[in-house]
Write a structure and sequence with these properties.
single chain, DNA polymerase, domain 1, 298 residues, mainly alpha, hpI Integrase, Chain A
Length: 298
């Protein structure tokens, strides 16, 4: 077998059996490709026989290239998965798993923006777009992130069959897990306005959000539009499209939403992922206290 054959099988396994996103599949296949480049043989047995020392050497080489802790942790996770898959293919699934601890990561808190800033960001993105329909498109995408808590990949995965939006929307998130999210009138109106202006009629089997030439809209184009609007509004670099989802969660929690409901709305597999927003809200309360308390102002 060639390296290309191994990588094709690995990528297909990730997409079909593990239901990883296209972005994750590309990243994990790239990690496996770097590992295979250093092997003298191209077969599952050669990969299956690798041990912790081999993975440690691979990570050390990547460190020399300048990757940080987060990237190293992701690379190790990808390599462990690749090695486990290789052992299954080589009939060595019962072998002792590789035990190699990744770098310790400091988990930072999400940085939400205010409700006014979230709406202003969507409006300014629309105002500065090259064409009115593109402005309507970007505004609709951003309101789906802030108004419904969608991930940007989830918003861009909507197709023509999803419109017109109703009061709720079935969203397929990470791991193929489906959830139902409520859709506010402002979000429904924004999506309808975009659909009415889009030069390409909506089709059930094609992406709802189109690029300037009619192809699927990329995340990068939305991120660039937000970066431009962020400068106009004087917002920090943390005001990204994903920050709108964080803001959705933080503002709901601050308004009294319970963690279990929030977990369902966000599509988190574990409540641990949702609990981080309790720290965000506490941090916001402390900041308010420090700016308002007479003793803190002395």
């Amino acid at each position: 077998m060639s390296n290309a054959d191994l990588l094709e099988e690995w990528g297909a396994h990730l997409a079909r059996n593990r239901r990883r996103s296209p972005h994750t599949v590309r990243a994990y296949v790239a990690c496996a490709a770097r590992l295979l480049d250093n092997l003298p043989e191209s077969d599952w047995g050669a990969v299956a026989r690798l041990d912790a020392q081999a993975l440690r050497r691979q990570l050390a080489a990547r460190r020399m290239e300048g990757i940080g802790n987060a990237s190293a942790a992701r690379e190790l996770s990808a390599l462990k998965g690749f090695l486990a898959f290789a052992r299954e293919k080589a009939g060595m699934a019962e072998a002792e798993p590789v035990r190699l601890r990744g770098p310790r990561l400091k988990k930072g808190l999400p940085r939400p923006i205010t409700p006014d800033d979230a709406i202003n960001l969507a409006d300014v993105v629309a105002e500065f777009a090259e064409e009115p329909w593109i402005g309507a498109r970007d505004r609709a995408v951003l309101l789906l992130l802030y108004g419904a808590g969608l991930r940007i990949a989830e918003a861009l995965s909507l197709t023509g069959k999803d419109i017109p939006l109703g009061e709720t929307l079935a969203v397929t998130g990470k791991g193929g897990k489906q959830r139902i999210v409520p859709i506010l009138p402002i979000v429904r109106e924004a999506v309808a306005a975009y659909a009415a202006q889009c030069p390409w009629p909506a089709q059930a089997d094609l992406p709802l959000f189109r690029g300037a030439k009619g192809g699927p809209l990329s995340q990068g184009m939305v991120q660039k539009a937000v970066a431009r609007a962020r400068l106009v509004l004087g917002l920090p670099a943390t005001a990204t499209p994903h920050a709108l989802r964080h803001s959705f969660a933080t503002h709901l929690l601050g308004a009294g939403a319970d963690l279990r409901s929030l977990q369902e709305l966000l599509g988190h597999a574990s409540l641990d992922s949702t609990q981080i927003y309790t720290k965000v809200d506490a941090a916001r309360m402390l900041e308010t206290y420090r700016s308002a308390h007479p003793r803190e102002r002395d």
